[in-house]
Amino acid sequence: MRKWGVRRPSLAALLFVIAAPGLAAQAVVNRTPNVDDGWTVPPGVIQFNFLHRFEVSPPPPRKVTSFPNFHLATGLPLAFNLQLDYATNSSVFTGIPNEYQLALRRPLLRQARGNPLDVTVTGGYNFAPQSVDGEVGLGRQVGPVHLLGTVRGISSGYDVQRSMWGAGGGAVVRLTNWLSLAGDVFGLVNAPGSSPAAWGAGVQLRIPYSPHSFSIQLTNTQSGSIEGASRGVRGAHMAGFEFTIPITLSRYFGRRGKPPAAAPPAAQAPAAPAPAAGGAAAAGAAMVRIANLSFTTKELHVHVGSRVRWVNQDQLQHSVTADDGSFDSGLIEPGQSYERVFAQPGSYAYHCSPHPFMTAQVVVEP
Ligand SMILES: [Cu+2]
What we know:
- The chain is mainly β.
- The protein folds into two domains: 23-250, Porin (Beta Barrel); 277-365, Immunoglobulin-like, CATH 2.60.40.
- The chain contains one helix and 20 strands.
- The protein has one helix spanning 2-17, and strands spanning 45-56, 64-75, 81-87, 99-109, 118-126, 131-142, 145-157, 162-174, 179-188, 198-206, 213-219, 238-248, 285-291, 294-295, 299-303, 306-312, 321-322, 337-342, 346-351, 359-365.
- The strands form three sheets. A twelve-stranded antiparallel β-barrel has the order 1-2-3-4-5-6-7-8-9-10-11-12.
- A hairpin with a 4-residue loop joins strand 8 and strand 9.
- The model is unreliable at 1-25 and 255-283 (pLDDT under 50).
């Protein structure tokens, strides 16, 4: 106890030095079967993803073997995420088909907050091989393409229980608001035995009018842990799907009905014409419509002191929730609106808490 009492302040200080970055949504639409985009969930959300893979043996038996995986995550203070991956039929460690990985994750940089890349660090423990496994994930959105890279280290991996590392990457190409194609490859430098490189391909879908996303996959990996996703299983041709379920606790416990921070009738400042590049709005009011499960203005540029008004023109409740927690509208009923004045310059990434794949940002210019 005393030891922690001494250490904790300096640890906290260190963590605050790293500017708390935004938390991305946990949907499959920006990642690939074996390389994720550093997704995290905010506190108050429990993410449950069901990843099911299966394989059919050659004829005549055509036996179907299933590989169910369960992923649970939740947000902690200081932008950490706690994650549990559980696979019921894993070959990561022979003789122990129940594979558990417990991990902590934290975003370090977010492109949505003006950094060149998303950088996310994950560290965890895989109980079957008794291995400390870690990952540094990189991501960058370039037009409709989301590029992903990852470097992973494993202290005592698989049956061989030796340290190893590897690198890989992938890309997700967004075809429409609902549909993306994804592919990845990952190789361990000193892979155990004759394990081939891991590869995966997926069709990633947002499910309209729901907080869910869905992925249909082909891959040669069986489980979703760091070790499971890092090496191919020889001869495996797995089909599978993943279904993502964010559970927003505030929808069930309290806070529901929190009224939108009502602003006095907008005293419209004389709306100077806005010649600024990048669609900067005049100081006064700028509007973002919410429709079809989307913020219709993905990046709104305003000047300091501007009032921004979000109008929910959808048939569902939505929220305007800062990724860093600095503001939150609560649930906005259909037909209602929420307003906020931005007094400080900067980039404000936000999302909708019931539909975390709904993301956008306000850029406040001096
Ligand atoms: Cu929403």
